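Please fill in the sequence for the structure shown.

STRUCTURE ENCODING:
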C-alpha cells in the first residue's frame, strides 16, 4: 500500500512537471525548423528534466529505458502511466466527453497492443488468422510503428517477416481532443509528447528516436529507406544522439543511394528491353492503324520518327515537332491522341485530363496579350502566381504529347514563344523558371490549304482507279508540296525559321472507298452497341446500307460527314419510330435499302408470333408475321427485307471518331 502511495506521489510529481514542460513549449510559440524542442524524461519517473535537440521534430516526452527492463515493473508502470495520462488529459482539456474516439472494427488495435507489449505469440496468432499486417490504427499508425517506438525488436522482426511495409509512414496528427490524447498515450507510447505530429515518420525514425541500435540494424536489413523525410523535413539520422547509430545511418545512406541508383538503372534497362520486344512483336504502325483509318503516309512518318527517338538515333537537344495538314475529320487529332497513349502506356492518355496528353486550342490565343496565358503573366501583373497553362503542364510531364490545335489561328507573338520552344527545347515562364521539354512531342494541326490538298488528292484517287482499278495507292508529289503548299504556309506564317524547325509536315488525304466502308461500319457498330445497352434492341444491316451511307461522304468534312449521314438516314428514323412506339425494348431492327432510301424492318416478339413493321421515307405499313404467315398479304412487302436479311452484318465494337 505504501509502495503504491509512493508511486502515486511520483506520478503526481511527474504530471506536474509534464504540465509545466508542455506549458513552456506552448508558450514558446511555433518553433523554427532548425531549433525544435524535444523533452526527455530521465532515470526515474519522479525526476524529470528537459533537453533540446535541433531538427528532431516537435517536443517529445521520453520515459527511462531502465523502467522497462523488469517485466513486473514495466506492467506496474504501464498501469500507473495510464492513470497519469488520464490525469494529464483532464487537467489540460477539462471534463468534456466531446471528441471521444470510437474504435474501428478491425484487427489494428489488437495488433498494435501486441506490438506495444512485445507479445510475439499474440502477433503470430493474429497474423495467421488473416489480420492485415499494415492495417492502421484509427489515429494513423501501424503495429510496426508501435513496436519501433517502444524499442520492441522481437515484435518488429515478426511483423517484418510477415511482410510489413518497412517504409510506411505514420499519419498521426494531434486533433487536440482529450480522448485522442489519452488514446495516443495509452495505445502508442506514453513517452512521446502527445501534441507532437508524427506525420511522415517511419519505423526507422522511431528506432533512431529511441536510440535502439539493434532495431536500426534490423530495419536496415529489411531495406528501410533512410532518406525519407517527415513533415518537418527530417530524416531518421536527425532523431538520434547516439554517435554509433549516426555513423551506421550515414554509411547506410550512401550505400542505399548507390543501391537505389543501380536498381533504377537495372529496371530502366529491363523496361527498355521489354519495350523493344513489344515493338518488334507489335510495330507502332499496326498499333496506330487500330484506331486511325487510312492515312498510311502520316502514320509511317510518325512511327519512324518515334522509332528513331526510342532507339537513340535522334537529336537530343530538340523536341520532335510535327505539322499535320488536311481537312477536318481525317484523323489528325486521333493520331496525336493515340501517339500519347503509346508513349505513356496508358489508355487514359487520350483523355484531355491526362498529364501525358496536353491539348491547347489555339483559337484561344488569337490576341497578343494571350501569349501570357502559355507561360504565365510577368511580375506585377494579375495572375503572376498562377503560372502558364503550358509551362505548368510541361513541368508535371516533360515528355508529354502536346497538341496545338488549329495553330494557324494563333497570334504571331504566340508563334514566337513556340519557336523558342521548338528551337531550344526549353521555355522560361513568367516567374523566371526554365522548363526543359526536349523529350516532349509537339503536334500542330492546321486547316491551311486543306481544300487544295483534299481536291488534288481526290483527283489522284480517281486517276489511280482508272489506271490501276483501285484508288488505294497514290502519293502527293514533291512538286505539289513545294510549289503549291509551301507558298501558302509561308504567306500565312511569314517566318521561314518557324517552318524550318518543323521535323515533318504530314498530309492527311481523303479516304478511299474501302476506307469509307470501314468508317461507316465503325459508326454503325457504335450505334449497335448503344442500342443494345440503352434499349436492349438488336440492330442489324446489310451491305447496301453501308454503301448508301458512304455515298454521302464529303471530302471537305471527312469522317464527320459520314457521322452526319448516319444521323440523318438512320438515327432520325429510329428516334421517330421509338417516339411512335413502333420500336420498343427487346425488339430487333434490320436496316435495308429500297429505291435509294434506308428502311427499317422491326420485329417485336409477341405471344404466338412476331409483329413486324416496314417503314421508311415517311411511309409505314403494318405486317403480321405470325407462325402461320399469310403469304398473300406479306410477300410483296417482305421480299426486299428477306433478301437484305440474307446479307445482314453484325458488329460489336464502338467507333473511334476521326478528327
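FILLED IN BY: designer on duty
SEQUENCE:
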Amino acid at each position: 500500500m505504501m509502495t503504491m502511495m509512493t508511486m502515486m506521489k511520483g506520478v503526481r510529481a511527474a504530471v506536474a512537471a509534464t504540465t509545466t514542460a508542455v506549458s513552456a513549449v506552448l508558450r514558446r510559440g511555433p518553433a523554427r525548423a532548425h531549433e525544435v524542442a524535444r523533452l526527455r524524461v530521465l532515470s526515474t519517473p519522479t525526476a524529470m528534466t528537459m533537453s533540446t535537440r535541433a531538427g528532431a521534430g516537435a517536443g517529445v516526452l521520453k520515459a527511462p529505458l531502465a523502467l522497462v527492463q523488469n517485466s513486473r515493473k514495466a506492467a506496474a508502470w504501464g498501469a500507473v502511466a495510464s492513470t497519469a495520462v488520464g490525469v494529464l488529459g483532464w487537467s489540460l482539456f477539462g471534463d468534456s466527453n466531446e471528441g471521444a474516439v470510437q474504435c474501428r472494427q478491425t484487427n489494428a488495435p489488437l495488433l498494435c497492443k501486441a506490438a506495444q507489449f512485445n507479445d510475439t505469440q499474440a502477433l503470430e496468432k493474429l497474423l495467421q488468422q488473416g489480420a492485415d499486417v499494415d492495417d492502421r490504427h484509427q489515429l494513423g499508425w501501424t503495429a510496426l510503428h508501435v513496436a519501433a517506438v517502444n524499442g520492441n525488436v522481437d515484435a518488429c522482426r515478426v511483423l517484418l517477416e510477415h511482410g510489413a511495409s518497412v517504409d510506411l509512414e505514420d499519419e498521426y496528427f494531434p486533433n487536440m481532443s482529450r480522448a485522442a490524447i489519452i488514446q495516443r498515450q495509452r495505445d502508442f507510447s506514453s513517452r512521446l509528447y502527445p501534441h507532437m505530429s508524427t506525420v511522415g515518420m517511419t519505423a526507422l525514425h522511431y528506432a533512431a528516436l529511441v536510440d535502439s541500435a539493434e532495431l536500426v540494424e534490423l530495419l536496415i536489413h529489411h531495406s528501410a529507406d533512410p532518406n525519407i523525410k517527415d513533415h518537418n523535413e527530417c530524416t531518421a539520422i536527425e532523431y538520434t544522439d547516439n554517435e554509433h547509430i549516426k555513423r551506421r545511418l550515414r554509411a547506410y545512406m550512401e550505400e542505399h543511394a548507390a543501391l537505389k541508383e543501380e536498381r533504377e538503372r537495372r529496371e530502366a534497362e529491363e523496361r527498355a528491353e521489354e519495350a523493344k520486344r513489344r515493338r518488334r512483336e507489335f510495330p507502332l504502325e499496326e498499333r496506330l492503324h487500330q484506331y486511325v483509318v487510312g492515312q498510311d503516309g502520316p502514320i509511317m512518318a510518325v512511327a519512324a520518327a518515334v522509332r528513331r527517338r526510342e532507339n537513340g538515333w535522334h537529336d537530343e537537344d530538340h523536341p520532335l515537332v510535327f505539322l499535320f495538314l488536311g481537312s477536318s475529320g481525317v484523323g489528325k487529332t486521333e493520331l496525336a491522341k493515340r501517339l500519347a497513349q503509346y508513349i505513356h502506356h496508358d489508355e487514359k492518355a487520350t483523355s484531355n485530363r491526362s498529364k501525358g496528353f496536353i491539348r491547347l486550342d489555339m483559337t484561344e490565343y488569337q490576341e497578343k496579350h494571350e501569349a501570357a496565358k502559355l507561360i504565365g503573366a510577368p511580375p506585377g501583373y494579375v495572375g503572376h502566381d498562377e503560372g502558364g497553362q503550358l509551362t505548368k503542364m510541361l513541368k508535371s510531364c516533360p515528355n508529354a504529347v502536346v497538341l496545338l490545335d488549329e495553330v494557324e489561328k494563333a497570334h504571331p507573338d504566340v508563334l514566337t514563344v513556340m519557336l523558342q520552344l521548338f528551337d531550344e527545347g526549353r521555355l522560361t515562364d513568367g516567374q523566371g523558371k526554365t522548363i526543359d521539354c526536349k523529350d516532349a512531342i509537339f503536334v500542330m494541326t492546321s486547316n491551311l490549304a486543306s481544300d487544295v490538298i483534299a481536291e488534288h488528292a481526290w483527283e489522284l484517287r480517281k486517276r489511280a482507279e482508272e489506271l490501276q482499278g483501285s484508288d488505294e495507292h497514290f502519293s502527293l508529289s514533291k512538286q505539289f508540296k513545294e510549289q503549291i503548299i509551301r507558298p501558302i504556309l509561308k504567306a500565312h506564317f511569314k517566318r521561314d525559321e518557324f517552318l524550318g524547325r518543323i521535323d515533318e509536315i504530314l498530309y492527311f488525304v481523303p479516304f478511299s472507298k474501302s476506307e469509307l466502308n470501314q468508317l461507316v461500319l465503325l459508326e454503325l457498330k457504335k450505334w449497335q452497341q448503344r442500342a443494345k445497352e440503352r434499349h436492349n434492341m438488336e440492330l442489324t444491316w446489310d451491305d447496301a446500307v453501308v454503301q448508301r451511307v458512304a455515298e454521302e461522304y464529303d471530302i471537305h468534312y471527312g469522317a464527320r460527314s459520314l457521322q452526319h449521314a448516319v444521323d440523318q438516314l438512320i438515327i432520325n428514323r429510329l428516334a421517330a419510330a421509338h417516339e411512335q412506339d413502333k420500336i420498343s425494348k427487346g425488339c430487333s431492327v434490320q436496316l435495308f435499302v429500297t429505291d435509294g432510301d434506308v428502311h427499317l424492318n422491326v420485329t417485336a416478339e409477341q405471344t404466338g408470333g412476331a409483329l413486324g413493321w416496314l417503314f421508311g421515307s415517311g411511309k409505314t405499313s403494318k405486317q403480321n408475321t405470325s407462325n402461320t404467315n399469310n403469304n398473300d398479304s406479306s410477300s410483296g412487302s417482305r421480299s426486299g427485307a428477306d433478301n437484305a436479311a440474307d446479307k445482314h452484318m453484325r458488329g460489336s465494337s464502338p467507333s473511334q471518331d476521326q478528327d
